[in-house]
Amino acid sequence: MAGFRSLSPGLRALQPEAFGADPSGERMARIRRSPHFANGVFQNPGGPARTRPSGSALDFAKAFFDKETRPRRAPSGTIPVHPTTLADLARPPATGLRLTWMGHSGVLAEIDGHRVLFDPVWGERCSPFPFAGPKRLHPAPLPLAALGPVDVVVISHDHYDHLDLPTVKALADTDTLFAVPLGVGAHLEHWGVSADRLRELDWHESTRVGGLTLTATPARHFCGRGLRNSQHTLWASWSVAGDEHRIFHSGDTGYFEGFKDIGAQHGPFDATMIQIGAYSDLWPDIHMTPEEGLRAHLDLQGGPGGVILPIHWATFNLATHAWSDPGEGTLAAAGAAGARIALPRPGEPFEPAAETVPAEPWWRGVAVAPVGGWPEVRPEAKATADTVSDVSEGAAEDGGAPEVVPAG
Fold first, then answer.
1. Against a cut of 0.85, is the pTM above it?
2. Which pLDDT belongs to residue 84?
């Protein structure tokens, strides 16, 4: 079948372990049965999406190595990382929901007595090689071992800046569960995660973990870790619903009208974690600009409700835009729309329903200022919310094995 050509034994032997493994057996049969799989590949919502940079390799090289813009693609000083401590995380959130952005797309969500870790990347590089590839611009806010027990790790797709071999291997020695898009489980089993700890979902399927319902929802992106990019593992955004709260993680995605449907079915959300970085005119179908990210948030919420947490920026240099542009762009877009935005430093916990959330543009102290200086922060971007009553701590877990069910 097209899209599933195997590597020769010789080439397979040379593969780095980080390449992972291709789906096979019943996993492959399930992929072929997916309504989102056709002609040997998974299909994007909204029609085909360009998954490679448009234009020539020379055009891309000129943009990436431009002497005028390249200095702005990295901080001019040390990124202010919040030194997350056990004390930060030991106290239950007063409102029942607390988010801690770990950098890039990694977020620890403490929701209704459960702990969910999205797209954790503790490795130094998002690359299959330890000596090459994009390197972290700031350290992880705390050692992974100091994070404490996690009920479920949620992976959006299998790219290196979202599915990190060193992190997965460390978590493989715990008893945490993994919720992943269809096909991604092949990588995790190859790296030592037992099959009984995997919850592998197609779009619109759900699984229960304790008192949480996790649903894989559509996204507009692509997949691949090795020498080929055959679209044989799925990519997803995620809805997580507890007894009292709902949150959304976009993973990587281009903007598409389906956010409205996701919001109508699973929202509104107390907080959305939205990708707003590593965008480019060279790949407009698979990553959102800050303005598109804010639009996605509004679609999900049916208006300017809830809090948007910008993710997928500030940790790795993956595009040609200035390092500070994603934060600045989202701040401006939220201000114009009257949307409530949280701007924590990496590692800084906050509660979306608290009276205030982090709202200062902290990156300005370590970024090259634009010509004419930084724009004034609009008052709407510093909006606060009424204090929400505390919810009961620690929703009881059901103790049974989570089951995959249709989300509808």
1. yes
2. 82
On the question of a cis peptide bond just before residue 120, with omega within 30 degrees of 0, the verdict is no
Task: Give me the pLDDT at residue 11, please.
Answer: 43
State how far the Cα of 65 lies from the Cα of 406, in Å rounded to an integer. Answer: 47
Q: Is 207 exposed, middle or buried (0-12, 13-18, 19+ CB in 10 A)?
A: buried
| Secondary structure of the chain in HEC code, one letter for each residue | CCCCCCCCHHHHHHCCHHHCCCCCHHHHHHHHHCCCEECCEECCCCCCCCCCCCCCHHHHHHHHCCCCCHHHHCCCCCCCCCCCCHHHHHCCCCCCEEEEEEECCEEEEEECCEEEEECCCCCCECCCCCCCCCECCCCCCCCHHHHCCCCEEECCCCCCCCCCHHHHHHHHCCCCEEEEECCCHHHHHHCCCCHHHEEEECCCEEEEECCEEEEEECCCCCCCCCCCCCCCCCCCEEEEECCCCEEEECCCCCCCCHHHHHHHHHCCCCEEEEECCCCCCCCCCCCCCHHHHHHHHHHHHCCCCCEEEEECCCCCCCCCCCCCHHHHHHHHHHHHHCCEECCCCCCCEECCCCCCCCCCCHHHHHCCCCCCCCCCCCHHHHCCCCCCCCCCCCCCCCCCCCCEEECC
Question: How do residues 199-241 score in pLDDT, each as one tens digit?
Answer: 999 999 999 999 999 999 999 999 999 765 566 899 999 999 9
| Sheet with 205-209, side-by-side order of all strands | 340-341, 307-311, 271-275, 246-249, 237-241, 212-217, 205-209, 404-406
Which two structure tokens, joined as six digits, stand for 214? 């996790």
Neighbour count for residue 10 (Cβ, 10 Å): 7
Closest CA to 336 of 296, 385, 377: 377
CA 5 – CA 232 distance, rounded (Å): 11
Within 10 angstroms of residue 137's Cβ, the number of other Cβ atoms is 20
Residues of the chain under the 50 pLDDT cut: 1-13, 381-408
State the pLDDT at residue 57: 66
